[in-house]
Design brief:
By secondary structure, the protein is of the alpha+beta class. It contains 5 helices and 9 strands, in the order βαββαβββαββααβ.
Length: 251
């Protein structure tokens, strides 16, 4: 039987989500914990990658187990959370259709990037501190230019093994909350390093280093070197993944 697991994690200690041969990852820790408690090997397929140091407030993966192995789901979730380190938390596990896929059936993903405008010693690992004043209105105007565009190769990490650079970008805007500036971006999919490169570019607009329309120049160039530098991973959060109800076992 196939199940989805919904969980969250604080990414500082991990080299991203996906298993790596010589580095600790969220997938490795979660798979090991689940396998030991079930006394059966569990292999997780995540909804996507997050890079080293990136956080996830909402992440999903699917896995297959025999029905008699996972009899009491609520008790298993409770025991799993007790077994896992404090920086990984499981929200729920639920049954889905046999063909449900955590990655391919996701219809939308949302990220936030957090910037502290005031030095905050309690948020060193939670947000990126930008000392200089930013023109938020200009940054939002530039962010609007991203909407309706399709090819985001210019914001993708070089030499990645993707089959397409096309993304359906549906939301991109900045909002000021007290001393924190939050960028929210939603698309059907994201390229590797894409959000951090977009944020770095929009910060340059806010600092007056780029005119607003330079975003169009970057997009047309399809050249990563034309865009701004990637901002630190610690300010990036995966906050939401959307699935159709049809994947639910009783949907």
């Amino acid at each position: 039987m196939r199940f989805f697991i919904q969980f969250s994690y604080f990414g500082k200690a991990y080299h991203g989500w996906q298993n790596q041969p010589n580095a600790i990852t969220v997938q490795e820790v979660l798979e090991n914990g689940m396998s030991k408690l079930l006394n059966s090997k569990v292999s997780l397929m995540g909804a996507g990658r997050t890079d080293t140091g990136v956080h996830a407030k909402e992440m999903y993966a699917h896995f297959d187990v025999d029905v008699d192995v996972l009899e009491n789901i609520e008790e298993y979730v409770f025991r799993l959370n007790s077994f896992l380190p404090n920086d990984i938390a499981v929200e729920r596990i639920f049954e889905v259709t046999e063909d449900a896929h955590a990655r391919f059936h996701a219809t939308a993903r949302t990220y936030e990037y957090h910037i502290d405008k005031k030095k905050n010693p309690f948020a060193t690992d939670l947000a990126h501190f930008v000392k200089k004043n930013l023109d938020i209105e200009q940054m939002n105007t530039a962010a609007e230019l991203l909407l309706g565009k399709k090819n985001f190769e210019c914001f993708s990490k070089s030499n990645t093994d993707v089959f397409t650079n096309i993304c359906d970008l549906r939301e991109a805007h900045w909002q000021l909350e007290n001393d924190k500036l939050i960028f929210t971006i939603t698309a059907d999919r994201f390229l590797r390093n894409m959000v951090r490169a977009i944020v770095g570019t929009l910060i340059n607009v806010g600092l007056g280093k780029y005119p607003v329309d330079y975003v169009n120049t970057i997009l047309k160039s399809k050249d990563r070197t034309k865009a701004g530098v990637s901002v630190p991973a610690k300010g990036l959060y995966l906050t939401s993944i959307v699935y159709p109800n049809t994947i639910l076992k009783n949907g």
